[in-house]
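fyi for ur records
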Amino acid sequence: MTLKNKACIAGIGSTEFTRNSGRSEIHMAVDAALAACEDAGLEPEKIDGMVRFGSAGQTTCEFTTDADVARCLNLPNLNFYSEAPWGGGACCSTILHAAMAVSAGIAKYVLCFRSLKPASGTVRYGRPTAVPVDSHWSYSMPFGFSSPTSWVAAFTNRWMYETGATNDDLGMIALVCRENAVVNPRAIFYRRPITLEDYYKSPMLCTPFRMHDTCLENDGAVAIIVTTPERAKDLKQTPAYITGVGMGMADDSFCMTSFYRDKIGIPEMKYAGKDTFKMAGLTPKDVDVCQFYDAFTSLVPMQMEALGFVEEGEGGAFVRGGDRIRPTGELPINTAGGMLSEAYIHGMNMITEATRQIRGTAITQIPNVEVSMTTGGLGVPTSALILTKG
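which gave:
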């Protein structure tokens, strides 16, 4: 039994990405859902399944419930509803849940969504949404080890020490993502280029990360409609077939602070990638374009190693100078600007860009794309997705 090509993405939609949306998370989620329906040519009332981001002890997960969205869309019934946990690690998992539902006949049209507004100050239970609540953080947060930036910096420093990757290598990832965002009107950093000198002048946050090494904080929502290939034939868009999708959770796993393993890093992505490529019957060499989850610059070359695009220890060398990861390079990445420069919607905007690459409608369109990949968040249980033309 396999999910390969038994489901597809038939509609994508989003709100504008902004520093201040001026409306609630529910409002944005519904706006994105309606945009996805319009994109697909689907009447909203036909949606009968929904997948949202679950909690998993994190306050940054989805606060808009499936019932909220169903009520606002006036849906008669949801046959299927589920949650995919672990923040950014959930993005491709939502697609897996939806693909299982439609291929099994439990639902016909499943809406996956993410809506958040950290930039304009959403607060829950008396604390900002960026503050986690899992008990294991009590061993570190009171002593200043208190943010995702510091946690990822810790294993990035180890990776740089072991592989010889440099700050210039990290800077080139920031530059390439920004180059792609500069021409993308949806991007927060549209028409706002930077140079390597600008990168080094940006404030140091936590060694080795400067401000330009970290993702954006913004408001926005993204929605994606998944259905079967048969039903997609009656809709408006060229379907993006879900050819491979997988999840991974490695041993001795903690959220963002898995520092007690013999070898620290992102083994979760190795597992997720292995299952995704196996389902698709493809290898990294077959991928034409990849949207790597880029909450931090270092995660891009680290994923290249974990997924087998390069040998272990060669990620820094691969991105060095930037040419191999630009749109004209051998592995174009984050063609809308990624979460470093387009918007941070926990990876869901990366899935919409992967879909546009299959449709041939991306602003920075890579020629002759047959295989488009995207990945989920790192430092947590994660996921990966391969889309094709079927």
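Residues 123-132 have pLDDT under 50 and may be disordered. thats all i got for now
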